[in-house]
Amino acid sequence: MKKAPTHRLADRVLWALGRSSQHAQRLVRQHMTQAGVRTQHYHVLASLADDGEAAQATLADRIGFDRSDLVTLLDELEELKFLARRVDPADRRRKIVAITPAGEKQLDAMDQLIYAAEADLLEPLTAAERKTLLALLSRLSAD
């Protein structure tokens, strides 16, 4: 019987972390899609909630989105009443973006989707293993 092929890096931590990360992202997208929400909206709302209001360009840089793509997302979120834009009094050409109470509520709901995706990902691990994994990954983080 022929052995299933394995990747040449299958025994390397970087390979395993990358594969786990891809799987985690896939689970998050799946939960978000099933709930009818967009992961890009989550990034915008979470940044506004966690880091505060910001000029559109600053927000784009903060979350690593192309500035022109961000405008489309902001239009969608503003239409849904999840954020508000106002003119910057210091520079009338700039718009300041802030999350609204409805946006905070939506962000909380999206957090729950992420928690569900995490539960799916970590299902094979015991509570102690989950705690150890988080501690180890935290030590490896560049933050």
UniProtKB/TrEMBL annotation:
The keyword DNA-binding applies. One of its GO terms (molecular function) is DNA-binding transcription factor activity. One of its GO terms (biological process) is response to stress. Residues 10-142 form the HTH marR-type domain. The keyword Ion transport does not apply. InterPro entries: HTH_MarR-typ, MarR/SlyA-like, WH-like_DNA-bd_sf, WH_DNA-bd_sf. Coiled coil: none annotated. Keywords: DNA-binding. PANTHER family: HTH-TYPE TRANSCRIPTIONAL REPRESSOR YETL, TRANSCRIPTIONAL REGULATOR, MARR FAMILY. This is DNA-binding MarR family transcriptional regulator. It comes from Kribbella pratensis.
